[in-house]
Give the backbone structure.
Amino acid sequence: MFAVLKTGGKQYKVQAGDVLRVEKLAADAGEKVQFNDVLMLGGDAPVVGAPFVEGAGVQAEVIEQIKGDKVIKFVKRRRKHSSKRTVGHRQKLTLVKITDILASGADKSGIKAATGSAPAGEAAPAAKPAKKAAAKAEAPAAAAADDLTKLNGVGPAAAKKLNDAGIESFAALAALSDEQIAAIDTIKVKPEWVEQAKELAQG
């Protein structure tokens, strides 16, 4: 029985006992991992996934973390004041040995899924303070949106920025406090806009 699995953007045809090099996995040597993206199972009764075979999995044991062969990139510019540059690269890989192919029940095996690791030194992006989101949440909601371009000095571009900040009606603009106006970073809200909005909101 063989299987076609997908990992690291590549496809591999494997069977029990095969040793292969895959893109770096977040696992230590001796650890067992499971590939859940199985595209096809072969044998007496072949099964083709759409795109993956449900419940199927390929289990493997990590042998070691290795590096691929060195690839040389050479650039030379044949001009006056020419320059040349040589850069080498060795791709990080993981050597694994296929131990078992599961046609079903892979989700209940208890073995962790084989996933790639983030590049060294790369951390998850920190959450940035969202002043615009805060202003949008605090801005009073209106039943229907108004045409903000009716305000003197507000064109289509300024109206779009106000809408992005959660201000879609005259009532919402008129109800803004000084703190809420200061929290809007997409556009500088002018006091005369607020005064006009109060008059238009009253009809």
Summary: Confidence is low (pLDDT under 50) at residues 130-143. Helices lie at 131-138, 156-164, 170-174, 178-183, 191-201.
